[in-house]
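User: Hi! I have a protein structure encoded as tokens and I'd like to know what sequence might fold into it. I'm fairly new to this, so please keep things simple.
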């Protein structure tokens, strides 16, 4: 009897040594959770035995329990290294389309040859689908998919608006015959110019140049004309297309009314003063409609001579404050005509660019142009277009949102890392490689987002180290060794007693 008891103690001590040794061996294993050997005594009783005199039958290993306490966080230089602070597990599948999900705290991830995020065992990291604004479209494991970083470039964006802030020198001399003699190839026909790079719908770049011409101070004091060119080719400035279409329709109506009035007048044998008034009103309406569609910078319908260039007019007051522009903001503001003849590559031919001077007609504003007695100076020149972007990095937030960043300054949400928790994490079945699978005792996997509810946060460029306390394990190792030696001694003593008994017989 004592032999079996001592033998069970020996086995228990050996199990304790095994567990402790395994903990020590994995002290540097990322995401490793230490184990603890849990023992129970063996006590067999029967109706014929006395409980007061009954001796226990030894010890039995009840469980080798995982301890899911938080490990220390070590920061790295790899954005795909992930650590969980708090509760939760990463979810992985061994291959695409697999339903064999395993769970881990080890966040040593990288990209495979197909640009999927995987760990060193080839497990694919699962993520929830997201909407364009980065919010999760679903938070269910049934919709989670392996996260893939696209190799495609960031989408370009055509330029639609250019913001300009500048100072036009009040003391500039008037160029004789300006602005009717404007020629972008002749610097003697304009006072100043500035350029900015814009983009079409395909991401191709163009140089858009703005020319400023001081108008005759005797007839148009404190007024400047502005013209524009794309890659050296002059492009007309016009009202908003919709407003211009309305103006063209009004002009057509006025022309028709004037023609009809003239026809009616000519058919009258003895026209009255009222008939003449009707004709004059029609002619006046026609003239006003034509004037409304006449471009700035010239007379009649041809725009500026000699090339018929349509420009815009900027007006300042005597204090140098920008007070008006034509076309006015109420009519859509200063805008180019469609780029139809400037985009030979198949890009959007209807592209236009609005020139925004941030006009404040009520009072001086630091965000609008000025006309002071100082040099020509551009203080701000910005546009909203984007070139084609190249993948430059991957950003992962504390909530698990994975974003791809591109060289054109944009970022695109790709997925949100799936977080999983269990009602009883101690009931998980260990499958090795710092991975676990759910079991009946662990309960079903509960999915969620990082930082929400009971789920911990995700740290990018960091790894959770083993939660093994080496000092404690060394003490446990000494204790297990002594237990082993004590049970060995008990087994030896039992053997000596048995030998003595045999010799007595």
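Assistant: Happy to help. Inverse folding works backwards from shape to sequence: for each of the 505 positions I chose a residue that suits the local structure. Here it is:
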């Amino acid at each position: 009897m004592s032999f079996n008891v001592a033998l069970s103690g020996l086995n228990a001590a050996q199990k304790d040594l095994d567990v402790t040794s395994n903990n020590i061996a994995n002290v540097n294993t990322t995401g490793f959770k230490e184990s603890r050997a849990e023992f129970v005594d063996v006590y067999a009783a029967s109706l014929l035995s006395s409980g007061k005199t009954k001796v226990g039958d030894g010890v039995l290993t009840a469980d080798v329990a995982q301890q899911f306490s938080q490990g220390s966080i070590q920061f790295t230089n790899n954005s795909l290294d992930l650590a969980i602070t708090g509760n939760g597990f990463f979810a992985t599948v061994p291959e695409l389309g697999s339903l064999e999900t395993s769970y881990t705290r080890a966040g040593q991830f990288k990209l495979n040859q197909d640009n999927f995020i995987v760990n060193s065992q080839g497990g694919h990291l699962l993520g929830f689908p997201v909407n364009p604004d980065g919010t999760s479209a679903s938070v269910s494991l049934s919709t989670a998919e392996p996260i893939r970083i696209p190799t495609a470039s960031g989408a370009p964006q055509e330029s639609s608006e250019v913001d300009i802030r500048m100072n036009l020198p009040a003391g500039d001399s008037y160029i004789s015959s300006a602005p009717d003699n404007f020629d972008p190839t002749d610097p003697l026909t304009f006072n100043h110019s500035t350029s900015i790079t814009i983009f079409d719908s395909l991401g191709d770049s163009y140089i858009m140049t703005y020319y400023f011409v001081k108008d005759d101070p005797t007839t148009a004091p404190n007024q400047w004309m502005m013209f524009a060119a794309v890659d050296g080719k002059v492009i007309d400035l016009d009202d908003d297309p919709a407003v211009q279409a309305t103006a063209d329709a009004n002009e057509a109506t006025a022309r028709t009314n004037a023609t009809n009035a003239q026809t009616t007048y000519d058919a009258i044998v003895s026209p009255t003063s009222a008939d003449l008034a009707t004709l004059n009103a029609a002619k006046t309406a026609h003239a006003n409609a034509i004037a409304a569609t006449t471009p700035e910078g010239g007379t009649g319908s041809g725009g500026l001579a000699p090339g018929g260039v349509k420009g815009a007019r900027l007006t300042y007051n005597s204090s140098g404050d920008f007070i008006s522009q034509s076309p006015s903001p109420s009519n859509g503001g200063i805008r180019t005509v469609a780029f139809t003849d400037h985009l030979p590559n198949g890009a959007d031919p209807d592209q236009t660019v609005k020139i925004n001077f941030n006009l404040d007609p009520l009072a001086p504003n630091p965000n609008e142009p000025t006309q002071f007695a100082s040099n020509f100076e551009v203080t701000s020149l910005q546009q909203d277009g984007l070139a084609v972007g190249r993948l430059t990095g991957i950003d992962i937030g504390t909530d698990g949102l994975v974003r791809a960043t591109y060289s054109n300054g944009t970022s695109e949400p790709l997925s949100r890392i799936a977080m999983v928790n269990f009602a009883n994490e101690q009931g998980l079945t260990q499958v090795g490689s710092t991975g676990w699978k759910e079991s009946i005792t662990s309960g079903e996997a509960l999915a969620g987002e990082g930082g929400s509810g009971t789920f911990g946060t995700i740290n990018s460029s960091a790894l959770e180290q083993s939660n093994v306390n080496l000092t404690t394990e060394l003490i446990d190792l000494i204790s297990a060794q002594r237990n082993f030696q004590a049970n060995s001694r008990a087994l030896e003593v039992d053997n000596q007693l048995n030998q003595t008994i045999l010799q007595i017989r």
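A useful reference point when you look it over: The longest strand covers residues 205-214. Feel free to ask if any position seems puzzling.
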